[in-house]
Amino acid sequence: MASVTMAAVAAHFGRDVERTLAKLPGIVEDARDRGVDLLVLPDATIGGYLLDLHHPVEEGDGIPHSVEIDGPEVAAIVALAGDMTVCFGIAERAVDGGEERRYNTAVCVNGEGILGVHRKVHLPLGESEVYAAGDDFRAFDTPVGRIGMLIDFDKTFPEAARSVALDGAQVIACLSAWPASVTDRSDRIRNDRQAHLFDLYDCARAAENQVYLVSSNQTGVLGGLRFLGQAKVVDPAGEIVAKTWAKGGLAVAEADVSSDIARARRSLNHLAQRAEHAYRLSAPA
Description:
The protein is about 20% helix and about 30% strand. It contains five helices and 14 strands.
């Protein structure tokens, strides 16, 4: 596919799964009407996110509703997707070694079924009280090219995006439920420390790997968290080419992904010109 139309979603998805499933057809059809090939919905699309980042299990309704990868909720989005490639977040219920676990998970589908799955590896603050951590970063093939997925805090770590880029990802889908700062609140989102970091990480991860990055995020308020929005598409030079700002909506951009990446890497190829022998991979004991 020479040209790909990518869209990042900024929207509010709460704990009510049935309400979410009733809301999604309108978003998907709006994207389809705009010719979108790759649609990236936020983290926690199905089941909602935590109400508090520090002590989530102490909240009366602190645990998001979890669903199974092969359950009816994911199947409903497969049916919606048709020929579109759709990434979305779920609170995943799984059984590993006879033990039930919950993961913060990103799923990529089209009308044929599941194309890829990523379980969030980096769990900040109290997330580890609710979720188990994933253990790898892998890219996968889709009708719109090879994709890697990250879930919000994952993008803080350069190694995460670099891992999927080394695995051949040309587009990184980063699904977030990223709130404004809870320790240093600002009256204006654009002055918020977390809003600045959210954009900074998106641009840096795209530029350092010379790939497209499609970054979605939740909006609105859930519990004590106020989400930033700021969904965007970033090009291989680290430039934002489409953005929603703090409001809900779609950030849509069309690109010849392979050609743009080849152009970005023509003289300075960051992946090929690494000096692995010089890098420290762990701190001194």
